[in-house]
Amino acid sequence: MGHPFDMQRRTHLIILRLIALGCLGLLAACGPSHSAQQTGAKGENANVKRYQLTGRVVSVDKATQSVNVDGDEIPGFMAAMAMPYPVKDAAALEKLSPGDRIKAEIVLGNEGAYLENITLAQKAPSPNPTK
To answer: Rounded mean pLDDT of 94-103?
Structure first.
């Protein structure tokens, strides 16, 4: 069994993630202003909205299939903030490392919010090996 502090920390992280995803849902419910950039795929449900995200990878969690991104502001939709995003394509996580700059789409729909079409904009510099 883990140390009580570890369990408490893990519980706090889960609560923070739920709050962050809830805030994202509230932002979606309020609706974006006309200045927010939305894209949509053909044949996609009209309730699905997409927003272009750019940011820096803070951490990758393969166990929960999510990535924590310090995202840039999306005018008319969301202020710059760091938050975790679910990723449906587990293979996309294999290419990511903390410090990488990425571009992706935030998809908001009936299934909640998640990242899709993740591309690497700039690879994080390799850490200097210790001598």
So the answer is: 95
Closest CA to 57 of 72, 39, 44, 47: 72
Query: CATH fold of 4-122, please?
Result: OB fold (Dihydrolipoamide Acetyltransferase, E2P) (2.40.50)
**pLDDT at res. 52:** 97
List the chain domain ranges.
Answer: 4-122
* Main-chain dihedrals φ then ψ at residue 26, nearest 5 degrees: -65, -40
Q: pTM here?
A: 0.65
Burial class, 126, CB count within 10 angstroms (exposed 0-12 / middle 13-18 / buried 19+): exposed
